[in-house]
Amino acid sequence: MSLIGNILWLIAGGFLTGCGYLIGGALMCLTVIGLPFGLMSIRLGLATFAPFGKRVVERPNANSTLRIVFNILWLVLFGWEIAVAHLCSAALCAVTIIGIPFAVQHIKLIPLSLFPFGRDLQ
């Protein structure tokens, strides 16, 4: 079931979402300061290509001070915009019964887009 869901996800806009993460990550990697954020965005983009059958998990050492600082910077600079985009996409998908599974996947990606450091989609 997750294979079919992931294929439909890519066709219905997941490919564009993942490409947006990848392009944004590549642009952030152009500067030394943006490198950790760019690498995280690329990781999120790759995870966004196939979200069905995966869940958000905390990494074992997720509460280090550097990760908390990076999460706060991410939230202020990029995270809230991405979360709002996922929320709007989820609202649009939830209009039809067929789109509800896609809306659930967008909702699942919101915590990961808000605080990505120390979390992973597995």
Could you please describe the fold and organization of this structure?
The chain is mainly α and 122 residues long. The chain is 70% helix and 5% strand. The chain has 4 helices and 2 strands; from the N terminus they run H-H-E-H-H-E. The chain has helices spanning 2-28, 35-48, 65-93, 100-114, and strands at residues 56-58, 119-121. Helix 1 runs antiparallel to helix 2 (35-48).
Summarize the structure.
The chain is built from four helices and two strands. The protein has helices spanning 2-28, 35-48, 65-93, 100-114; strands at residues 56-58, 119-121.
Low-confidence stretches: none
In which order are the strands of the major sheet placed?
Answer: 1-2
Number of domains: 1
Please state the average pLDDT score: 91
What's the main sheet like? Answer: 2 strands, antiparallel
Alpha-carbon distance between the two ends: 16 Å
| Class computed from helices, strands and strand pairing | mainly alpha
What's the β-strand tally? 2
Helix share, percent: 55-70%
Q: How many helical elements? A: 4
> Could you say which overall geometry the principal axes of the C-alpha atoms support?
globular
Task: Report strand %.
Answer: under 5%
Indicate the radius of gyration in whole angstroms.
Answer: 14 Å
